[in-house]
Write a structure and sequence with these properties.
- It is globular, with a radius of gyration of 19 Å.
- The protein has 14 helices and no strands.
- By secondary structure, the protein is an all-alpha fold.
């Protein structure tokens, strides 16, 4: 049991750094759509090569309804989520994006409770979820209680939040019927396939010299190999073991890692608000994982 929680924490710790790497790629000249497609191509190729070496390789699900379920996972956890999240950082601040997206556990718990009786939270778990959400707000705002509102950017961030909540909901029936490797590979495949219409209307091609730049290449490899391949596999695995709601609550810790990473790399200051918010998040997550 402890191993599952440690894996979930490790995944969130890695994802907490991706805001910085994505922002660097956007500043280098890549579009939000290109960042998503390139990282998912790397991840899909890696998983496909590995899957082809396995004896029980399968291409499709057992039924067309399950295949539609995989399409939904690929769109909500892939193309639409990353497109809205990455685009949000163009029109609004990283702070706003992080704050809004990291509140997705609240919506995930709500959706799961509406559709699955077994996923409903008890009183102490609800209190813990609210406490963790308040901690996220304190950490992200960091004492500056004035948000720079951007209707378009903040709406895109909220759309990303809802996408991840729906992804968590769809993972509940998916993990009951299929293994982690197969689900993750299908997520990457349909995530890429669903981006085709976008590029038909908004074609974008980057120069090979830009992609071969050392900083751009390493950032893409990190996002594709580590943040996508490893993290999605690990996340879907612990979701099968702990349940969608319990695992999604770890997203609350995402901004804490982001701030720590910025402190180590960018020498940004850690304030008392960060410490208070982190304490609330940890306490809230503890209550979230208690059984009623």
């Amino acid at each position: 049991m402890i191993l599952y929680h440690l894996v979930a924490f490790l995944v969130v710790a890695i994802w907490g750094t991706t805001f910085v790497f994505t922002k660097l790629l956007l500043m280098a000249g890549l579009t939000a759509a290109q960042v998503f497609v390139l990282r998912f191509i790397i991840a899909y190729v890696m998983l496909l090569v590995y899957a082809l070496t396995q004896k029980k390789f399968r291409l499709f699900t057992s039924t067309w309804k399950d295949e539609l379920l995989m399409v939904g996972l690929g769109v909500t956890g892939g193309s639409l989520y990353f497109l809205t999240e990455n685009s949000a950082m163009i029109y609004t601040t990283t702070t706003n994006t992080s704050l809004i997206v990291c509140l997705c556990p609240l919506f995930a718990a709500l959706f799961a409770a509406l559709f699955f009786r077994s996923q409903r939270l008890h009183g102490i778990q609800i209190a813990g979820s609210v406490m963790a959400a308040i901690g996220v707000v304190i950490v992200v705002l960091n004492g500056h209680f004035v948000l720079h509102l951007s209707p378009l950017g903040d709406s895109l961030a909220f759309a990303a939040c809802l996408c991840w909540a729906v992804y968590s909901l769809l993972m509940i029936p998916a993990t009951r019927r299929y293994d982690t490797l197969f689900i993750t590979r299908k997520v990457f495949f349909y995530g890429l396939l669903s981006m085709v219409p976008y590029f038909l209307f908004r074609p974008a091609v980057s120069s090979l010299s830009l992609l071969m730049r050392t900083d751009v290449l390493w950032n893409l490899l990190f996002l594709g190999c580590v943040a996508s391949t490893f993290c999605f596999m690990a996340w879907n695995w612990v979701m099968r073991k702990l349940g969608a709601v319990a695992v999604t609550n770890y997203v609350y810790f995402n901004p804490v890692v982001t701030v720590l990473f910025a402190w180590m790399i960018l020498n940004e200051r850690i304030t008392v608000y960060f410490l208070i918010g982190t304490l609330l998040i940890l306490t809230g997550m503890y209550f979230c994982n208690k059984k009623g």
